[in-house]
Each structure stands twice: as structure tokens, then as C-alpha cells.
């Protein structure tokens, strides 16, 4: 006999469909809350999470113990582990999202037609967002807060390693949200860790409006391959920094060092450096990286810069290392750099360092990535750094929203038409 | 032996992939043309189409003769048939699109960050658009013109019935576009009528950026079911008009008549009329429709309005008639109307006729359709009527673009970041 009799008679598809329908109904209530009501509910959720601190940390300790028993890597266990300080950080992030400007109800544009009808496009929530994530329990709170602030219901499906942490965080959030007038079903956590639930979410077209995967490349690749629901995501961040021959050497060296080594594991890290053949100080670009232990792999001309640069294979140009490894190519000017980027970029973030404004403008115009930068480190590719206050993810698709996505990317619009009896001739 | 040796060795998937790759390369050239260059190229395309008039009409006569021999319905043959006047209309429509405001390059928003970086979101073309359509040869020109004006390459796949017409129109357009500096591959017509080509387009993720189906419900349903590429479309227009009890009777009667009978075959036509139980003159709403031969199907209370109203089945409330047929329900006020619409609307266009502004505002807020109207006929649901100058289609999905979609909906954006050496702390 199952201890979860409510699921015995149902397929996973039926479970996901019934959760989604309940979420959609709750979402229609949430969508009509005012900005102050949503702010208050989120602050109550943050307060409830702080109150539940002992419970959440105890649940997290169970997850960490299981992870250690199962031999998870120390990096995975670190992502999973919570303490007082991290939990306060999660609660504080909810408070921050609570006071972000509310996109819902904003008038995108307005026009009066010659026949007197007045048309507006007005921002509305998308509906029900599905979040599929891995071991970081903070995603439970971060994603829920962004969805609630933008008036969307959310169906969360976290990783099995964090199951107790996620349940404890979710229970606390819902307690606070309900106190603030948000229906409990507006923020649901998948009640089973059956992996088939992920597949059912991905194919729930018409029930889930958008899926946001948060996790490693294999998760994102699976979601993109299987989804019948629109997906907001990026698979790779194969980001280039091109140092034009007239770049100011100190600036170029600082940007290159920061773009690669500030944090090597984030999606905005540089993975390929392109150096003009006529740039006067190529060694000044690679020396600080080599000195800090970064592995460099280059084409023949790049290898000539320093004997410590290993040969690059064909795969290197299409590899997201997420590590202290960098591929380096020497190029013959802007057109050669643009051609390399067009061929190898994953359309996440590509940057140029150059003094000539006309060269920079051509780079900004012709590179077709979600984010294109001039004289700045690609590590700025982040919703917080872009002034969005937070981010639900970074998208490299071509439709709906690109680059760092926060509240506006969680909305859509409808047309309002106000007439006075107009009929069409 | 095949007479088309270039396809012998290739699978349909390879053919579509090679067309798409050529289209993408050409699209990058097209994307960089200035607004005056795109305007000039489109006007040259319209001129070339006018010059090719005799050739196009001869090709069309072949299609019409084949359609008659194959026993196509007169409605289908009418959609297929061109004459001097219709062809001039197609050319004039290209001239109109040529001078529409260019969305590409527009700055959506801009901000300076505290560290001095300046961020802009700038509109860019989406890339390569796939258009899958049926028997109307005008779509070849309309869709191509909208794509070129918005800087997108396009891969057209028209219906077999119109194959000679489409080839002749396409050849003329390309002649004019090339004269104007647009690469020929920016506007490609699928060179085979093999139905597998449609399937190959629908699954060409990463090669085709968006598919727009133009045609009947079975085409749209197939595209939505099979596509692995984002689709911009609507399946149904199950549009409601709700007559609130305080509606001005002459206005209500005129709107209802227009919404149903002006043209019954368009997606903006009303398919269900909701009448408040306390509306003083329900017979005044239905009498003009009945007098013009419209078939009415009602619930029990609606049938009581007039003996000529037949009983409605459960399916009627979910049926898009596209004909002089209307389902009619009597409702108990705004909440009842909202509940009916939430259950049965296809999210295309729903309207209220009411005097009370607060009632109208609740309807506009709470109805979740792409277009929501107050005191106007749902037949206004059209890109031209909405001031967009044209439309590539009407969308009822929730992401990217909704309602009538024209040039802006054929663009996306990228982030431009202009720095002066900023590195991330």
C-alpha cells in the first residue's frame, strides 16, 4: 500500500494537470492583487521563512547528511548546504523582490484611432510558470518571489537532493503568502520526486505557459529537447572578448583578467579571447592569466605569444569550460573577429575592447548575441548588474525575452480597446 | 530519372537545412540595410510584380484550371484566382508595407548604471521566419514584404494548388529585391511541394526562428502539434460579445449585428452572444440577425426570447462557426458572463457592451484574451484596423506577441552595453 494514497489512482500526467489547473485558478486571483498587496504578501513570506529557520535548517541537515552518505561531490554539497547566514540571505532577497517596480498593468503604448476607438497594450502576467531546478534550495524562494511579484502562479520542481529543504522552505513561504491573501495554490511544489513529473511538466502545453530550467547543462539540454511548452533558458555561455589593435592595453588586460578569472563558473565568464594580430602587447593580456594558473589553449599564432599556451583542438572553440581554461585565437582585425564569433558564439555575451568608436559600433551592431558589450567585462551579464533587481534566468533564444530576464520577462500583454459604439464598415 | 536532379541525393531535411542556412546568411545582410534601402527594395519588388503581370496571371490560370479539373470548391477557387485588379492590390500592399515605420534599431529603453556603463535594449530582426500557407497566392507577397521590411529572411511554403502562381510572384519579387540590394536568398520559396518539407520546417529548431501558419484550422492545428520551432498563430476565434443590462439598446443591437454578420468567415467574428437576464430588449438583439437569415442556437432562457432560436448543444459553446450561425446564452450579470468566457473563450477577442464604466473596466481587466473590447465590434480585430499598417497574423499564445502582429512582432531585441573599462568587483 502506498503511503501517498492521493496519487495511487492518478498517472503523473493527471497529477501535473491537476496541479496546473489549480495553479491557473489561483493565478487569476493573484493576477488581480494590487502592487501593495503583493509587496505585503512577499514580506510576510520572508518573515515566515525567518520564523521557520530552525525547521528549515533541520530539514536541510537531513538533505546534507543524505548527500554525504550518497557520496555527492563537495561542490554539490556546498550548493545544497544552508546555514543561518544563507537562510537570512534568502529571506532578504524576498524582501528585495517585494519592493521591485511592478510591471503588471503598465501601459506599453496607446493610440486613438481615427474612428475614436482608443487602443492600449497593457502588461499582464503570463499565467503559470514551471521552474525545474537542481540542488540549490534558494531557487525555491527566489523563483517563487519573482513569480508572485509579477502576478504569476508557479509550479516548482526541485532536485531530489534538496527535497526536505525545498519542502520546508515552500511550507514557510506559503504560510506567509496565504496570510497576505495569496491563494496557497499560486505557489506549488511538486509533491513527488518521480522523474516522470519533469516530462509531464515539459509536455503540459496549454496548462503551463512557460518553463524555466535552472541548473546545469544536462538539465537545460533535456528541457529544450523534450519541451512542448515554451522554454526560457540558455544552454551555453561561450562568450568572446575581442581585443582590437587600438585597445588601451591596461584596460584590455584588466577586462580580460576579470572576464575570465573573477568567477570561472558563471555563464557570463569569457571562454575565448580574440586578439588582433597587430595588437601591440599580446603578452600583457595572457601573462596575468598564466600567472594565476589559468590554462590557455591557442591557435598557432596565439601559441607564439607564450610557450605555456597549449594547442587548441577544434572542439575548444565550441567549449564552455566554466573553469580556469581559456581558448585564445589571433585574428586579422574586426571582420575576422566577427566571423569567428558568428561561427562559435552561443549568443550569450560577447565583448569588444577598442578605442575606435566606429569599430565598437560595428561590433555592437553586427554581433547577434543577447548581450553585446564595449569596453566592459562579460562578467557583468547578470540581472542584478543590469539593474533588474534580480533574475529568473538568462535567455539566449530569439523570442519573448533575451539576456537577463526578471519581472518584465515574466509578463505578456493584452490589447484593450475602448469604443463608443463603433462598428466596422 | 528525376527532372530535379539537385534534390535527388538529398533528404528533405537536408534541403530545408540548406535553404535555411542560405536564408540566415542572406538575413544578416538584409538586417544591416537602412530603412531607405529596404523601402527602395520593396518598391522595386512591387514594380517588378506589376511588370510581370502577364506572366503571373498566366501561371495563375494554370493553377485555376487544375483546381477546376480537380473539383475544388468554388470558395477555394475564388481564394486562388487572381485578376488584374487583385494583382494590383497585391503590388499596392507591398508599396504600403515599404513605407511603414521601421522597428529595427529602435531603442526600447536605456539606463546608465552607477558604475558608468550605459545599457540599451535595441530592436533587431528575429532572423529567419518560416511561412506555411494554403491557397491564397497573395500571402507570398504580403508575408515576404513584412519580413523584408522588418529585416528578416523568410522561407515560404505555399499550397500545391497555387504552385505556379506562387513561383511566378516569387520570381518577380526576387528580381525587384535583388535590384534593390537584397540578397536573393533572403526570400526563398520552397522548391518542392513534397508535404514532408512542412514537417522538416516545423522541426528545424535553430535554423528557422519562428513559424507563422496562414490558413485553415487543420493547417494551424498540425503546425502547433508538430512544431519544435516557436509558432505565432491562433487556432480558433471563439469570440464573445456580452451585452450588459445597462447597454444602450441601439448601440448593442448595431454592435451585435456587425460583430456577427459583417463578414462571418473572419477570425474576429462573434461566435457567442451573452445577454444579461435583465437586459430590457433581448429581442431587439436577435431579431435583426434572424431577419438576415442567421441561425441562432440558445440555452433554455435564450430560446425563450424567440421561437426561431434552436437549442444549443454542449459543443456549440466551443465551436467557431465562421458562418451565419450564433450561439446565444442568457447570463446573470457580469460574473456569470466572465465565468462563461473564462471557460469557453479561445483568447482571441471578447467584447462587452455596457454603459457603466466600472463594469467595463472589470471586464477589460478580468477577461484574459489577446484583445478585450468595450463598446466596439469584435470585427475590428485586425492589424490594419489597429493601425499596424498590415499584419503577419493574429496570435493567441501568451508569449512574444499577441493579437494582431505586424512589424514589431517580427523583431526581438539585444542588450548593448557601453563601458569605459568597467570590471566586475
From TrEMBL, chains A, B:
<dbReference type="GO" id="GO:0005737">
    <property type="term" value="C:cytoplasm"/>
</dbReference>
<keyword id="KW-0641">Proline biosynthesis</keyword>
<dbReference type="InterPro" id="IPR015590">
    <property type="entry name" value="Aldehyde_DH_dom"/>
</dbReference>
<dbReference type="GO" id="GO:0004350">
    <property type="term" value="F:glutamate-5-semialdehyde dehydrogenase activity"/>
</dbReference>
<dbReference type="InterPro" id="IPR020593">
    <property type="entry name" value="G-glutamylP_reductase_CS"/>
</dbReference>
<comment type="pathway">
    <text>Amino-acid biosynthesis; L-proline biosynthesis; L-glutamate 5-semialdehyde from L-glutamate: step 2/2.</text>
</comment>
<keyword id="KW-0560">Oxidoreductase</keyword>
<dbReference type="InterPro" id="IPR016161">
    <property type="entry name" value="Ald_DH/histidinol_DH"/>
</dbReference>
<comment type="function">
    <text>Catalyzes the NADPH-dependent reduction of L-glutamate 5-phosphate into L-glutamate 5-semialdehyde and phosphate. The product spontaneously undergoes cyclization to form 1-pyrroline-5-carboxylate.</text>
</comment>
<keyword id="KW-0963">Cytoplasm</keyword>
<dbReference type="InterPro" id="IPR016163">
    <property type="entry name" value="Ald_DH_C"/>
</dbReference>
<keyword id="KW-0028">Amino-acid biosynthesis</keyword>
<dbReference type="GO" id="GO:0050661">
    <property type="term" value="F:NADP binding"/>
</dbReference>
<protein>
    <recommendedName>
        <fullName>Gamma-glutamyl phosphate reductase</fullName>
        <ecNumber>1.2.1.41</ecNumber>
    </recommendedName>
</protein>
<dbReference type="InterPro" id="IPR016162">
    <property type="entry name" value="Ald_DH_N"/>
</dbReference>
<dbReference type="InterPro" id="IPR000965">
    <property type="entry name" value="GPR_dom"/>
</dbReference>
<dbReference type="InterPro" id="IPR012134">
    <property type="entry name" value="Glu-5-SA_DH"/>
</dbReference>
<dbReference type="GO" id="GO:0055129">
    <property type="term" value="P:L-proline biosynthetic process"/>
</dbReference>
<feature type="domain" description="Aldehyde dehydrogenase">
    <location>
        <begin position="17"/>
        <end position="277"/>
    </location>
</feature>
<dbReference type="Pfam" id="PF00171">
    <property type="entry name" value="Aldedh"/>
</dbReference>
<keyword id="KW-0521">NADP</keyword>
<comment type="similarity">
    <text>Belongs to the gamma-glutamyl phosphate reductase family.</text>
</comment>
